Every structure is written in structure tokens, then in C-alpha cells.
Amino acid sequence: MSSCLSFTVPGDGAALRIDVNVDTLIIAGWAGRDQHAVEHHIAELAALGVRRPSTTPCFYRLAPALLAQDDAIDVVGETSSGEAECVLVRHGDELFVSVGSDHTDREVEAYGVTVSKQVCAKPVAREAWRFADVAAHWDQLELRSWVTREGERRLYQEGTVAGLLSPQELMAKLGPDGLPAGAAMFCGTLAAIGGVAGGEQFEIELHAPVLGRTIRHRYATQALAIAD
To answer: What is the mean predicted confidence (pLDDT) over 118-130?
Structure first.
């Protein structure tokens, strides 16, 4: 089962609109270059009862139908939270990059990471860049996120992607074929400022200082009632 993502792609002239049918969704977990930073994130989640991964990085295969570009997602209860990540999308022979949120149910995560990721929608921005436009200065790209909880908005994540494995490294670890056409991959996240926390709104941002471009996306979480 596939999902359709629509992106506006800036260029030298008029912006291009592309529609991508995604039939493969991959979440790269524990994808830091610096093992110390990886251990920090592992410890961050271990505090919530999440088991250590058997290997790093690891790749979670999820249903493409989880991908969403809406302004709101439904979640179960109030134990989920987002994570800003670069998202690679292969469209035909060309690779694009956007920003998304690996929104995850933290209570379920203590039971099973893959299950927790499958429970929540994966928001993705409506704009993308050609990977070729940012490849030469990839490590300078900046990720940020903000969470709003009980009406208070605060910075949740901030930093460059230099601490994460590069797209080339991640794709090589996927196997000899790399990222196939019609695939989307979330490329890892940064540590949360002040610890993992959810809220009623999440904002994500990818900034390319060399190009002076920024991709932003904001979504609300709508908690479904728990009947049992």
C-alpha cells in the first residue's frame, strides 16, 4: 500500500510541484556519527523504559500510509511526542530532502520500538529541496523543533545534522541498492532539550544557511479518548 506526498521544489525559475507515490517507508534509528551522542539519546529513552537497540544504526520498516502532510494528526492519549528529522525521498532517479517528524508513542515504546512507531502518523513538510542542491554543504544544515504544551511554546531541539550519519552512509548501510525509487527515509534526530516531552502542537524546521532557505511544518496533535 502506497502513500502520495506532494512537494513544492524551489529552483532558479518557477517552483516545481512533484507528487511522489511512496511504497517504502524507513525510519533510521540511532543514526548518530558520535557514539557519545548516540548513547545520550539511548539513555534519554532508557529513562522512559525503552530497551537498548541491538545494533546502531537500525532501520525500522513501517507502513507508508503513516505519512501525513496535514495540519493535525490523531494520537492515542497524551504520551506521544515528535522528533525533527531530515527526510530523503527517491522520486524516479532523483533524490529530494524535506523535514518530517518521527512522532512516536512513548508509552508503547517501552513495550516495543517498532510497534510504537507504527502507532503514530509521520508528518512531513510540503516543501522539498533537490538533494544535489545541499549535498556539498550537508553538514551545515540545521534542524530545529518547538513543542507547545498547555499553551507554552519552547525550543525542543536545535543543532546541525553534522552529528548524524550522512545520507550516503545511511543509504549504503541499507544494502547494495541503497534507497530505491518510491522510498522515503527519516534520517535520525537530535537530542531533546530538557528531555523527551509531548504537547498539543509540534513545529519542525530544516534550514540551509548556504542557500538561505528554510523548510517549516507545524502540526497539532488531537488526542483520542481511551475507552478502557
So the answer is: 96
